[in-house]
Amino acid sequence: xxxxxxxxxxxxxxxESDKIIRLYTKEHGKISLVARGAKKSNSRIAAVTxxxxxxxxxxxxxxxxxxxxxxxxxxxxxxxxxxxxxTAYASYxxxxxxxxxxxxxxxxxxxxxxxxVIEKMAAGENAxxxxxxxxxxxxxxxGHYPEFRGCVLTGETEGPFDFSIKHNGLxxxxxxxxxxxxxxxxxxxxxxxRLYYLIDFNRLGKIDVNDEVTKQVQWAIDTYYNEVSGLxxxxxxxxxxxxxxxxxxxxxxxxxxxxE
Length: 260
Known about the structure:
By secondary structure, the protein is α+β, with helices and mostly antiparallel strands. The protein folds into two domains: 75 residues, CATH 2.40.50.140; 169 residues, Recombination protein O, C-terminal domain (de novo design (two linked rop proteins)). The protein has a five-stranded mixed β-barrel with strand order 1-2-3-5-4. A two-stranded antiparallel sheet has the order 6-7. The longest helix has 23 residues. InterPro entries: ARFGAP/RecO, DNA_rep/recomb_RecO_N, NA-bd_OB-fold, RecO, RecO_C. It holds the Pfam family RecO_C.
């Protein structure tokens, strides 16, 4: 019998009364386990097989699909499930993690990162900003290493800069002609992309960014991901739909507001 602690990053229905859960652990990486009877209301492991639960698990099988024998909740993050937007951003982050890594390949730094992402979202920090930081941190895991320290062509570290997907990094003003299709971004957006990509997540304080700048940062990240990642995640499509709902709600509220 094996023992591990891990964060549940995916839950799938399996047969009539079972679940398959996917854990991300510090020691063993990603592990998939069958939780027999977990869909039954009286199951002793139902409570420990919920998405975003951090728990301790005893299971059989050190290869392929194991079977949970017992589990114990170590930590829950209930505030995530209380807000649809936070739930959506957290779901996207664990989905991105799941699609980016193989089974049983330990990466303690990545485990620490996803745990902190969930922890910060559960603490009420800006889930959209946290997810953007996670997206940029995941680029290296996906095998992409954009240059954000300075111009990828000249090495200049002082802007202004634009971002070139063609050259995979920032390019300075005198290199703009090298990529007519570069992403033309404001200085503030460039600074945030550099910060999010380069900063140690452990040192990250609270970041206060207005909605418009956050939207521009997201456009840059999405454009890069669409070009290089090959990913097409349902959780990402749902986030995009939610963004459209949020924009429509603001329009409706504005139209309903009394004239000044």
